[in-house]
Amino acid sequence: MTKGPINLAISRRSLLTGLAATAAATVAAGSAALPRSAVKTWDMSTDVLVIGSGSAGVCAAIEARQAGAEVMLIESLSQFGGSSAMSGGVVYAGGGTALQKALKVDDSVEEMYRFVALAGDANPPLDKIALYCEESPAHFDWLVAQGIPYSEKLTLAKGLPMGDESLYFSGTEQAWPARELAKPALRGHVPGVDGMNGGRRLMEALLSRAYTLGVSLRASVSADRLVIESDGRIAGVIVTVAGESLAIQAKRGVVLACGGFIHNREMLKLYAPKLYECSVPWGNVDDQGDGINMGIAVGAAALRMHEGFAIAPIYPPENVLSGIVVNASGQRFISEESYHGVLGDAITYHQKGQAWLITDQRSGYNFHQDNFLPVAEGSSIDVIAAQLGFPLGALQQTVNYYNQHAINGDDPMFRKSKTYLRPLQGAPYKAWDLSVADAFFPAHTFGGLHTNLDGQVLSSFGDIIPGLYAAGRNTAGIPTAPYIASGLSVGDCTFFGRRAGRAVAALDGGLS
Amino acid sequence: MTKGPINLAISRRSLLTGLAATAAATVAAGSAALPRSAVKTWDMSTDVLVIGSGSAGVCAAIEARQAGAEVMLIESLSQFGGSSAMSGGVVYAGGGTALQKALKVDDSVEEMYRFVALAGDANPPLDKIALYCEESPAHFDWLVAQGIPYSEKLTLAKGLPMGDESLYFSGTEQAWPARELAKPALRGHVPGVDGMNGGRRLMEALLSRAYTLGVSLRASVSADRLVIESDGRIAGVIVTVAGESLAIQAKRGVVLACGGFIHNREMLKLYAPKLYECSVPWGNVDDQGDGINMGIAVGAAALRMHEGFAIAPIYPPENVLSGIVVNASGQRFISEESYHGVLGDAITYHQKGQAWLITDQRSGYNFHQDNFLPVAEGSSIDVIAAQLGFPLGALQQTVNYYNQHAINGDDPMFRKSKTYLRPLQGAPYKAWDLSVADAFFPAHTFGGLHTNLDGQVLSSFGDIIPGLYAAGRNTAGIPTAPYIASGLSVGDCTFFGRRAGRAVAALDGGLS
Questions:
Q1: Would you tell me which residues 28-87 of chain A have a C-beta closer than 8 angstroms to some C-beta of chain B?
Q2: Is B2 helix (H, G, I), strand (E, B) or coil?
Q3: What is chain A's Cα-based Rg?
Q4: Minimal Cα–Cα distance from B343 to chain A, Å?
Q5: Does residue A139 sit at the B interface (CB-CB below 8 Å)?
Q6: Partner residues linked to B431 by β-bridges
Q7: How does residue A435 score in pLDDT terms, banded at 50, 70 and 90?
């Protein structure tokens, strides 16, 4: 493969991998399940034990508590909120939510379903998607009722609003081919707070609600092993608190909701080697895969373990979308306006981790940024093609073809929107490195436990594992690769977290 | 995506899927493990129970028996041999095998390792690859000693020999970029028999050897559930014989060796949706994933479940390699001489399942074949580009660029060998459909249980599951996607099957 001439001595990835390794070493590893017969006495008991305090776990806890169950929620870190609190706090919602209606945004459940079901590439969980879309307006009402503040403001700008707007295009709806598969609508619902604080605000509201309802919230408690009855039912969990091992009985069930595994480098390399290559593990430090591994240890199936959100955040600013993105053969392979997750997926999974953004005078980054470094610069495309060692004449041909059609407002190959379409002309031309290892290329995981619509964990034969529930990135949920819109992950966490909470609470107790 | 104008009313895939569904319905499904306490008495007992009679299982049985264990091998079908017997019977071997030496083929363990480790794309199991390469000459000697006949003849032609030659280039060694990563050598070792009978001949020899050694071979016995002790050790298997359920004790251990899951359509869709799209499930009808699922049910980790061998067998004849392969954007994306598994992988996983072979008068198929149907034909590239609806001018540009360099003996983009490189010129031009759904596009699965070098099955936490071994396509072994050479799968089956057999036999018995 062609490789840019500028090789940083230490790649961004290797720097960050070093950090992650340090973090991992401080986190206790889980282990296989413990037979119930090995637990002499329970140190504590509750109806429902939720593991993890991100949006999936807290929503499960709220619903289980509201259904009348006694609920304990444990968090391994000293602070609650999980990776959700670090996120933008976007929930992908539509089909006519109260906010869409208030802002006169036309949408339907069918168009939302078409987008989520069709705009990706993998085999998406259609049953989960259908339910998610049908109940999306009601789910948004529920989020509002928990105290999450949304403003009646929208923006048409691409990218997470840094102002207090609460509705925006969070995905690839307007880019080709998605816009031909479903009618685009603004569906990114984000707390109406300035800056990148949506996730924190969302979690503050949910945690406050859980606390008010009487969920027992315990920080700095890590889950080590599930306890399993001889008949296969999950009876409780062995946890560590301040170095001490305790057995907690969960009479109605356990909800695994402790996130993905982007920070477990060994597990990542084994299951999701493409994400391992990405420079920035994106998630809180305890995204170590413990919940997924505890599930696998009791016979759960795990799906889509190689998939994730590989992020190439080239916009904002939107002016760069008038540049072109090319692979190592100097060919375009995607509409540049595609959502970060769609572009990131194409580079990570389908272009061997390498791509370049080629810009002219007007389309370059016009402020200091170090997410994507310029690796070639010159007075002509010939010059940068030679600098980067593209196949002879290939980049020139790509630019000529693109320009020849752009001047007429056409992009026959990838149908870029007219907003961003114009010929590349005017030195300096630059090439910006979009490689997964050297660019700012965050990633997190989507693989997880196989669950039904109620969050019940399923075995390899499709059987329910009694007493075991999961939600969020502990599960293989709605987010698949390519990730087509911000808000599908936190949306999935909150929606299916709630369902898991209702389901686990509805079960009769009855252990010992 | 661009779609050819000729849509067959029923795709090849939908036809074959119908057949597969019928087959699946006749196969009993397995289920979760049974606690040892639920087995009152064992109906039968053996030291080692091997499940599956393909090359992995039979090699395990031979080695376990030679190590002094009492061995029973069960096969769910009425005939022995598994998918290995249906295969070409190629074993990828090198580093200086007796046959390579006899035929004066220069090779080294290091070059073989470089090829297998580097020419693919995924995260390959380097520990397994290193051992496999180091011991490859000795492993080939062992195969000869089992009575498999190899001729002292080689061929330089591409593709499985239909004559009695026993050594050939079975992979992508000579195609770019592989040839720059490792020095190419002939490493496909195939029984010296005419026609596509290598697999049958290989299995006849191995089965005969197992029988002679006193392995108890039982056909028409299907494995339903593992039996697990309260301490997690695998104690035996519940099987079905003529409608009757029997419990078989395996005092030293169980070896799961009953193949992949290409014929379990539901499982395939769940785990490997890209392979589900391929038109021809390739493997024997009992490749239902039962062994993999039984392993998962007792807490085993499963790796690379989405990967497989997606096969685009465009050659022979080699003259077609002077054509070019293009994607839906009319762009080339690979050297056309790449091995079937490399081309198939690129189309299946990275080009959304669509591609076309573009030929001129000399490079078209010059005999009747229906593997790849002509979907456009005309007096110029313009005509076929218009017929197929490629982006305006894109295919023309690709051909112009290719021709312009080919005339000078260059292929700057994909470095096709000079043997196949010449400009496309001379009507009729044709486009042949290489799509996964409508072309002859066989596939089988590579995902399976996580095992160590001795075939011991590992949990999600990396712990050994006592008494449980696996080999062949029940495991995540050396074959990964893209599949870079024929013979790596049967090679992995035979080599690690043997290791599993030695390991399981070496354990002390000790279950009451």
A1: 29-33, 35, 37
A2: coil
A3: 24
A4: 14
A5: no
A6: B358, B376
A7: very high
Residue A273: its chain B contacts at CB < 8 A? 122-123
**Is A362 near chain B, with CB under 8 Å?**
no
* pLDDT attached to residue B15: 41
- pTM for the complete prediction? 0.93
pLDDT in tens, A268-309: 999 999 999 999 999 999 999 999 999 999 999 999 999 999
Interface with A, mutate which of B180, B397, B404, B460 (most A CBs under 10 A): B460
**Residue B112 to residues B119, B446, B496, Cα–Cα distance (Å):** 10, 21, 18
Domain B29-85+199-306+447-506 architecture: 3-Layer(bba) Sandwich (3.50)
Amino acid at B252: R
Check: CB of residue A100 under 8 Å from CB of residue A168: no
pLDDT of residue A388 exceeding 60: yes
Going by the DSSP 8-state scheme, the letter that residue B390 receives in this structure is P
Q: In 10 A of CB B212, how many CB atoms?
A: 12
Between chains, do B299 and A304 touch, taking CB under 8 Å as contact? no
Of B69, B22, B52, whose CA–CA distance to B239 is shortest?
B52
Structure-block tokens of residue B280: 């021809």
What ipTM was reported for this prediction? 0.92
Element (H, E) at B139: helix B136-145
* Contact (CB, 8 A) for A225 and A33: yes
Choose among B1, B32, B393: nearest Cβ to A299.
B32
- Nearest-neighbour CA in chain A from B304: distance (Å): 7
Say yes or no for a CB contact (<8 Å) between B296 and A329: no
User: Could you tell me which CATH number the domain at B312-433 has?
Assistant: 3.90.700.10
CB atoms within 10 A of CB A149: 14
DSSP assigned state of A243: T
Residue extents of the structural domains in chain A: 26-80+214-274+284-307+446-506, 91-198, 312-433
Q: What is the pLDDT of residue B368?
A: 83
| Cβ proximity of B253 and B236 under 8 Å | no
Q: Which of A467, A432, A465 is nearest to A359 (CA)?
A: A432
Distance, CA of A493 to CA of A471 (rounded, Å): 6
* Blockwise average pLDDT, block size 10, chain B, 512 residues: 34 42 36 88 98 98 98 97 96 98 98 97 91 98 98 96 96 97 98 93 98 98 94 95 96 98 96 97 94 96 97 96 98 98 98 98 90 96 97 98 98 98 96 97 98 97 96 98 98 98 78 36
3-class SS shares of chain B: helix, strand, coil, % to 5: 35, 20, 45
- Is B352 an interface residue toward A (CB < 8 Å)? yes
Chain B neighbours among A 210-269 (CB < 8 Å)? 230-232, 269
Q: Closest Cα of chain B to A304: distance in Å?
A: 7
Look at residue B32 in the predicted model and tell me its pLDDT.
81
Contact between residue A305 and residue A446 where contact means Cβ atoms under 8 Å apart: no
User: Which residues contact residue A194 at a Cβ distance below 8 angstroms, ignoring those fewer than 6 apart?
Assistant: A162, A163, A164
Structurally, what CATH architecture does the domain formed by A26-80+214-274+284-307+446-506 represent?
Answer: 3-Layer(bba) Sandwich (3.50)
Helix, strand, coil percentages, rounded to 5, for chain A: 35, 20, 45
Chain A from 436 to 455: CB within 8 A of any B CB = 450
Distance in angstroms (rounded) separating the CA atoms of residues A384 and A395: 9
For residues B417 and B308, what is the distance between their CA atoms, to the nearest angstrom? 27
B303 touches chain A (CB under 8 A): yes
Strands (E), A143-194: 167-168, 188-189
> Chain B contact for A409, CB < 8 A?
no
> Looking at B275-428, which runs of residues are DSSP E strands?
280-281, 302-303, 308-310, 324-326, 356-359, 374-378
Residue A420 DSSP label: G
